[in-house]
Design brief:
Elements (H helix, E strand, L loop, with lengths): L4 E10 L2 E11 L4 E6 L5 H8 L7 E6 L8 H4 L2 E4 L11 H11 L5 H10 L13 H14 L4 E5 L7 H17 L3 E6 L2 H4 L5 E6 L2 E7 H7 E7 H8 L3 E8 L2 E7 L4 H9 L3 E3 L3 H8 L7
Parallel strand pairs: 3-7, 3-8, 5-6, 6-7
Antiparallel strand pairs: 1-2, 1-4, 8-9, 10-12, 10-13, 11-12
The structure holds adenosine-5'-triphosphate (ATP).
GO molecular function, one term: ATP binding
Organism: Evansella caseinilytica
Protein name: ABC-2 type transport system ATP-binding protein
């Protein structure tokens, strides 16, 4: 069964406030998606719709051709990992894995136990006594071991230190390769996670700013550096996202793709054309509205 996600003209209102406005997205099954957006862009709202935690105000959502809200069959195929309040949780790791095993039909107990060991989670402490990073590692363990066709991590790394986050990312890649399925990662840590993404969705103020394969997106950005007047001449007419100047040297971030002929012209002028990262594009694309 294929679990493509089809979101059509979805709007979500909290009272009078529109958190998502006329969103349409098609997420083909089997890929790793990065969902990025600034604070309040609507990421958690969108992910909550997919996990059937809430219903859209307008529009339609289909997962594998079926609408997810209050649909037990679809809900069982989606696992949303998010920051959980464990302040009242009296269970230990074993009890948490027992519960996950009961409710998640594809749950791989052996794999979960391997991850518990990998993340060095204590077996003798109650989960409410775990550090924040340990609680996040437990969530990630349950999320991955659930092997749900659609697995969503909403800023699931909160509190994890850098080596633990790296372990999380590597584990996602390895497990996705061994058990292909849709994985959606929402994050603010764009620079350290961009290598995970096959496709990127950028939400901006409740709208989809773009959705495309990461390599195509990153190829569209470039930085042009050299003598200020030559750089100005070269980038005139291009979409410019950011400018830095130090003395007579200028660097301009452009967006829209640079042709081979343009690269040759830049080389002729002694200009350096370099790549830009997803993080840089994200920062500057969400600073201003894209001109169509
Ligand atoms: N229950 C609610 N009632 C009213 N407004 C809400 C509610 N939940 C979210 N919002 C608003 O909807 C908008 C989108 O919130 P959401 O949590 O989806 O954003 P986000 O992209 O996940 O943000 P962050 O990166 O800060 O976690 C924000 O302006 C937020 O204030």
């Amino acid at each position: 069964m294929s679990y493509d996600i089809d979101i059509r003209q979805v709007t979500v209102k909290y009272g009078a406030f529109e958190a998502l406005t006329d969103i349409s997205l098609h997420l083909a099954c089997g890929k790793i998606y990065g969902l990025i957006g600034r604070n309040g862009a609507g990421k958690t709202t969108l992910l909550s719709l997919l996990a059937s935690f809430m219903e859209q105000t307008e529009g339609s959502i289909e997962i594998g051709g079926k609408q997810p809200f209050e649909n037990a069959e679809v809900m069982s195929q989606v696992c949303l990992v998010y920051e959980t309040d464990y302040s009242e949780e009296t269970e230990k790791v074993k009890g948490m894995l027992d519960a996950a095993e009961r409710y998640r039909e594809n749950f791989d107990r052996k794999y979960a136990e391997e991850l518990v060991e990998e993340f060095k989670l204590p077996l003798d402490k109650k989960v409410r006594e775990f550090s924040k990073g340990m609680q996040s590692a437990l969530n990630v363990t349950i999320g991955l071991a659930s092997r749900s066709p659609i697995t969503i991590f909403d800023e699931a790394y909160l509190g994890m230190d850098a080596p633990t986050r790296e372990k999380f990312y590597q584990t996602v890649l390895e497990d996705h390769a061994a058990h292909p399925r849709t994985i959606i990662l929402s994050t603010h840590l764009v620079s350290e996670m961009e290598y995970l993404f096959e496709e990127v969705v950028i939400l901006d103020q409740g709208k989809v700013l773009l959705h495309e394969p990461i390599d195509e997106l990153v190829e569209r950005g470039a930085s042009v550096t050299g003598v200020a007047s030559d750089v100005d001449e070269f980038v005139s007419g291009m979409k410019q996202l950011n400018t830095k100047q130090l003395g007579g040297t200028k660097s301009v971030m452009v967006y829209g793709g640079i042709t081979e002929a343009q690269r040759k012209a830049a080389a002729h002028l002694g200009l350096e054309v370099g790549p830009v990262s997803l993080q840089e594009l994200f920062i500057h694309l969400t600073e201003e509205e894209m001109e169509e």
